């Protein structure tokens, strides 16, 4: 297993979040789930995850990209894996501006996600 032990999942689709959490916890990761941008920032500060899985579009019309920018402005360099069902060039361009991040298209293939986590 990689150095990643704690993972924050910011995902407003509850079924996706629940399945990811169950699979990651089964592998020994400590996981916290949140559903919007404000919770993602707060949880990053308080939970101090080793990895953030962050949906581009979150609950309450909040943006995972805006969350990531705020997290970086706070000086937090935790790696971020953005997830999105929207692979438009403008989304990819916005994500590319966030340092220490990558993008993963939905539907998420768990083995691919796990490989990204372990490669960080």
The counted number of beta strands is 7
Overall number of structural domains: 1
Using the 3D structure, state the CATH architecture: 3-Layer(aba) Sandwich
- Whole-angstrom Rg: 13 Å
Name of the CATH first level: Alpha Beta
Q: Going across the major beta sheet, what is the strand order?
A: 2-1-3-6-7
Helix content: 40-55%
Number of helices: 5
Shape: globular
Strand content: 15-25%
Kindly name the structural category.
Answer: alpha/beta
Distance between the termini: 11 Å
| Multimerization state | single chain
Uncertain segments of ≥5 residues (pLDDT<50)? none
Structure overview:
There is one protein chain. The strands form two sheets. The chain has a five-stranded parallel sheet, sandwiched between helices. Strand 1, helix 1 and strand 2 form a beta-alpha-beta unit. Helices cover 43% and strands 24% of the residues. By secondary structure, the chain is α/β, with parallel strands linked by helices. It is built from five helices and seven strands; from the N terminus they run E-H-E-H-E-E-E-H-E-H-E-H. The model has no long low-confidence stretch (mean pLDDT 90). Helix 2 packs parallel to helix 3. The chain has a single domain, classed as Rossmann fold (3-Layer(aba) Sandwich), CATH 3.40.50.
């Amino acid at each position: 297993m990689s150095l990643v032990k704690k993972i924050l999942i910011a995902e407003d689709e509850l079924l996706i979040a629940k399945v990811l959490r169950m699979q990651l916890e089964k592998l020994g990761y400590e996981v916290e789930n949140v559903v919007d941008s404000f919770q993602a920032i707060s949880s990053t500060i308080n939970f101090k995850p080793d990895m953030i899985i962050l949906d581009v579009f979150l609950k309450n019309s909040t943006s995972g990209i805006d969350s990531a920018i705020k997290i970086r402005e706070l000086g937090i360099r935790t790696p971020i894996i953005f997830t999105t069902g929207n692979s438009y060039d403008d989304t990819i361009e916005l994500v590319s501006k966030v340092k220490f991040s990558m993008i993963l298209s939905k539907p998420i293939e768990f083995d691919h996600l796990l490989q990204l986590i372990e490669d960080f």
